[in-house]
Amino acid sequence: NAGVTQTPKFQVLKTGQSMTLQCAQDMNHNSMYWYRQDPGMGLRLIYYSASEGTTDKGEVPNGYNVSRLNKREFSLRLESAAPSQTSVYFCASSEGTGGSQPQHFGDGTRLSIL
Amino acid sequence: QKEVEQNSGPLSVPEGAIASLNCTYSDRGSQSFFWYRQYSGKSPELIMFIYSNGDKEDGRFTAQLNKASQYVSLLIRDSQPSDSATYLCAVNRGSGGYQKVTFGIGTKLQVIP
Q1: B42 contacts in chain A (CB < 8 Å)
Q2: Is the pLDDT of residue A56 over 60?
Q3: Cβ contact (<8 Å) for A99 and B105?
Q4: Using beta carbons and an 8 Å cutoff, which residues of A are at the interface with B?
Q5: What is the pLDDT of residues B52-73, one digit of tens each?
Q6: Closest CA to B87 of B3, B11, B2, B1
Q7: Tens digit of pLDDT for each residue in A83-92?
Q8: How far is B6 from chain A (nearest CA, A)?
Q9: CA A90 to CA A47: how far, in whole Å?
Q10: Number of Cβ within a 10 Å radius of residue A41
Q11: End-to-end alpha carbon distance in chain B
């Protein structure tokens, strides 16, 4: 049982480049999330998808876009990467459509923007 | 005031002692409370969740919730060096529709052999 799978695990980009972070879950969960984690800042929600076909902004959405491709997959796109987006990105999923259910996290993507 | 507050630590305890990790939250409408453990360089993993006032025990872990005081804690009995990690408190805020979860910055726990 893979749980939540994120690709890639590491990535180095130059300022202005674009890339898409991929996330897939095999737990038949309804809700999926993208977070970034920075030292001293904790986990901050970028975007979430409460259910298939819906996406909404979280706390720090600027500079990002998302796509809920199907129930399993939720991707995060950086259109024009900036050094401020250097961070560790986590995808998570939960069973319910609300926030009352525990979240299950992927292993993370460590992204550096030069 | 931060929505979810934790002391970043580090909290150092000797092996075999009880570690007490604390978290306060600002929204009185919060419904669900979670504790995650995160080892260095790894992803958060769920340790406990609690919805009702009082204590909830699972093995060496006890979560305590006091909604009147807006306080949730995690006790780790018989602490082991393998418990050394950062512990994240997460709170589900608001009511109706989607209820966003807010994470604290985490408390780093060091268990000294």
Answers
A1: 107-108
A2: yes
A3: no
A4: 35, 40-45, 48, 50, 56, 58, 90, 97-108
A5: 899 999 999 999 999 999 999 9
A6: B11
A7: 999 999 999 9
A8: 10
A9: 11
A10: 12
A11: 36
